[in-house]
Each structure stands twice: as C-alpha cells, then as structure tokens.
Design brief:
Helix content: 25-40%
Shape: globular
Order of helices and strands: HHEHEHEHEHEEHEHEHHHHEHHEEH
Structural class: alpha/beta
Number of strands: 11
Radius of gyration: 21 Å
Distance between the termini: 25 Å
Oligomer: single chain
Strand content: 5-15%
Number of helices: 15
Strand order of the largest sheet: 1-3-2-4-6-5-10-11-9-7-8
Length: about 500
C-alpha cells in the first residue's frame, strides 16, 4: 500500500520507529493532493508550506527525544467552517471568501497541540447547509469511488479527502448528519459525538443546539484516537460538558458478547434501497454471530424527524446568519443607504440553499407562526428524545442504515430540495436527541459504492459505540478497501 492509504495507527508506528519522517509522510500526502485534487475537489485551501513546516518541527522534536502524542506527524484536513488563525475560513461562501480569522477554533488548537499536520481546509456545502457538497460557492467535490457521484455533505470535502488519500484524518461538523452521511457515501468512518463532548468554540455556527464537531477516519481505532485528541471541557463554550475524556482506543477489544442491539424498524422500511437494507441485515446477523442479541425496536416519532429538524435547524440558522450583513468582516456591496447595502450584500454573498434556509427559518419564527412551527418542532424533538430513552432501557446500542441509498449522481437531486433533505432521514434524529452516532462501512452495492451502518447510543456512550463498531470491523474487510480512482471516467 502507498503511504497515503495506510491508517493513522499504522503510520504512527512507523514514525515512532523512525522508519518514516513526518516530512516524508506529509510530502506523500501533498503529492497525492497534486495528483487527484483536480478531479476530487476536496479542498478550498491547501496549506502546503505550513504543513511542511509543521512536519519539520515534529521531526525535530522527535529527534530531540521529546515524548509526542499518538497522532503527532499525521496529516489532517480541517473542514472550512472551523476557524484557523492566519488561514482563511470561508465556509465555502462568497460572504466569507476573504475572511482570515484572528484565532484558532478550540479543536484546531487541540489538533496543533497533538502535533498533527494540517494540510488544508476541506470543501463543504455553504455554511454546512447541504447533503452533497454541491452548494459550495467555489467547487463541487466528487466521490472517490465514482467521480460522477456526490461524496455526501456537508462535510463532503473532509470525507472525500480521507477516502482519496488526500489526508489521513479529517475533522467535520455534524448538524443533521454532515459527518456520518458523507462518511457512509465515501466508505470511511465518521462519529458525531454527544452534544457538548467537543468544543464548538471557533466553529462557524449553523444551528447552535445541533452542531457538533467530530472525526472522519479510515477505521474505528483512528477515529477513537482523533476524538480523544479533540474532546474535553472548554470553558469558552457554555454548552461544553465537564466529563473527562476516556482512553477509547486503548479499550477496544472487539468483545460484545451479551450486548443488546436494537434494529430500528422505522429506518428499514419504505425509501431504503434493497442493497442498503440487505447490507444492514447482514450486519445484524454478524453481530448475532459475535454474541450480541439483536432485536427489532420501534422509534414511533422517527417519521417526524426530518420535519422537526428542518424547522429547528433553519430557525437557528436564520438567527445565526443575521450577523453577515456587510458591516464588519464579510463581503460588502456598497449601496446608497444602509438597508440597500444589507440587502445587496446578502443577495450576492449567500447562495440559493442558504437563502432558502434563512427564509424557512425566519418564517417559522415570525409572529403568528412561531407556535405552529418552531414550538411544535421543539415538542416533537422532546418526543424523539423520549423514544430514545425508552429504547435505551431495553438496548445498549441501536442499529440502522446511515443513509437510505448509496451515493447519487451529481445534479440528480439539486432541483428537488425535499428529495435532498430526505437523504438525512436516518441521521437527523441523533442531533435532535443530542446523542452520539457512529457510521462505519458495512458493504457495497452492485455499482461498487459503499454502504454505511449507523450505530447510536445514549449520551456519552462513544466508547461503547467504538467497541461495537470495532467488533464489526474485526469480522469484516469492508474498511480495508480503497477506491481505485478512475480519473478518466470524469
């Protein structure tokens, strides 16, 4: 295997043994970016000089005998809605095309502190609003398994970068599935942690009660290590949890005997493709062979998840995006008066999907409609949490597809926003409930496209989800497969 195809754990061992330098590894990843980026489009900004400088510093520290963290020297991609000091953070929007933050997001600071090497800022749907990474103002990202198809979204650049070998690890954000859905479509591992497990300080807000930063990697152990590096209490984030960060990676044994796993009935029915349904059912059978007890479970309010999510999320977005008005640090379109300047700036600065969500959210919060829409959505959210609480009285972990189908073709769903929104039907529930959810590869369809398996657990059960995901990995080979980039096919 090429260096850029190995896992972080494999590469970290070679770095520790001095069989490989951080500069050599970083250069291999940068060369890979040079080779495939024109077709994949994973990055808004590639930070070549900064990456090589960081790698050189790690090599010097290792040569001096300094004790370094387990991920020191490993190349990572940072989603471009996480602030990076001195490096532009665009949110893939014209509104912030030239914005250079004066500070790092807390997770970016932790990545630097852990010695990881940032190779660039990953593309996304504008302001993280989308499910295909086709809403970026700058470029479309493609799926490394078939470059005529989408990588998912909104963290499509982060997932595609890992799948294509343009990064070994990456950070994404997940508001309604934006880590797990692209991870599933790109055949990699993605974790949405418990709400509050990872600091949101320096994450450009979309929907503040739903947003969470998380890791995208090639396998479960890598994912656990990266989450260990970025999780933890942050006094700068008022929603940050005080709980200590366990050593998740060290605790992986693959032993799940006696575990109770619930297969969510509402996410296995209408709208789920036969290939996805069969792969998830086979995964359930694998778990039974490993000693777990698998049984069907019902989440009655699941059918209302999409409706509730797209009211709560758009309402919060309309509030959060009000700050982009052309006055301080964004695009500014000059006009003869202040109101016209506001209107022209927002008209030019925001793309169609962002405008759609701002309008939906503003309507839901407006006088006379608040009770009928936003308040009702929050009531449904509470009912969804209650469904999960009842399910977790009987089961340790809940099982479902991550997405109802595999990667769709570029442009296939852009004309129908509702059809695009429904690709998140299985993922929005965890965000509404604030619980952790993990997506792992569990098969391939007839076109050779990856299928994702979603594991959900109670709040702060990341360790258990990693254990269940790792057990499946050790019994299958899906996570070992790498895409053969058919660049000519595009």
């Amino acid at each position: 295997m090429n260096l850029y195809e190995l896992t972080a754990v494999q590469l970290a061992e070679r770095l520790r043994q001095r069989d490989l330098s951080a500069v050599e590894l970083t250069q291999a990843v940068l060369d890979r970016i040079d080779s495939v980026e024109a077709v994949i489009g994973s990055f808004v900004t590639v930070t070549r000089e900064e990456a090589l400088s960081q790698a050189s510093e790690i090599d010097k520290r290792r040569a001096a005998g300094e004790e370094l963290g387990p991920l020191a020297g490993i190349p990572v991609a940072i989603k471009d809605n996480l602030n990076t000091k001195g490096i532009r953070t665009t949110c893939a929007s014209k509104m912030l095309e030239h914005f250079v933050p004066p500070y790092d997001a807390e997770v970016v600071r932790k990545v630097r502190q852990a010695g990881m090497v940032s190779v660039g800022k990953a593309n996304l749907d504008e302001f993280a609003m989308g499910s295909s990474t086709e809403n970026s103002a700058f470029k479309k990202t493609t799926n490394p398994w078939d470059t005529r198809r989408v990588p998912g979204g909104s963290s499509g650049g982060s997932a595609a970068a890992v799948a294509a070998g343009e990064a070994i690890l990456s950070l994404g954000s997940d508001t309604g599935g934006s880590i797990r859905q692209p991870a599933a479509l790109c055949g990699v591992v993605g974790m949405k942690p418990t709400y509050g497990r990872v600091s949101r300080y320096g994450l450009v807000a979309f929907a503040s009660s739903l947003d969470q930063v998380g890791p995208i990697t090639r396998d479960v152990r890598d994912n656990a290590l990266l989450l260990e590096a970025i999780a933890g209490h942050d006094p700068q984030d008022s929603t940050s949890l005080p709980d200590a960060v366990p050593a998740w990676a060290a605790g992986l044994t693959g032993d799940i005997r006696g575990m109770r796993i619930g297969l969510i009935a509402e996410l296995m029915g209408e709208g789920v493709s036969p290939a996805v349904r069969e792969a998830v059912q086979r995964a359930a059978e694998t778990y039974e062979k490993l000693g777990a007890h698998v049984e069907e479970v019902s989440l009655p309010m699941a059918e209302h998840g999409i409706a509730a999510y797209y009211l709560v999320a758009t309402a919060e977005a309309s509030s959060n995006l009000a700050r982009y008005d052309g006055v301080k640090y964004t695009l500014r379109v000059d006009a003869p008066d202040l109101l016209t300047m506001y209107m022209k700036t927002r008209e030019e600065g925001f793309g169609a999907e962002v405008k759609r969500r701002i309008m939906l959210g503003t309507y839901a919060l407006s006088s006379g409609y608040y009770d009928a829409y936003y308040k009702r959505a929050q009531q449904v959210r509470t009912r969804i949490r209650e469904d999960y609480a009842r399910a977790f009285e009987r089961f340790d972990v809940l099982l479902s597809p991550t997405t109802p189908d595999t990667a769709f073709r570029l442009g296939e769903k852009t004309a129908d926003p509702l059809e695009m929104y429904l690709t998140d039907v299985a993922t929005v529930l965890a965000n509404l409930a604030g619980i952790p959810a993990l997506s792992i590869p569990c098969g391939f369809d007839g076109n050779g496209l990856p299928i994702g398996l979603q594991l959900q657990g109670p709040a702060l059960s990341e360790g258990m989800l990693y254990q269940v995901g790792y057990a499946f990995e050790q019994s299958t080979e899906f996570h070992r497969r790498r895409p053969m980039l058919a660049i000519a096919a595009k």
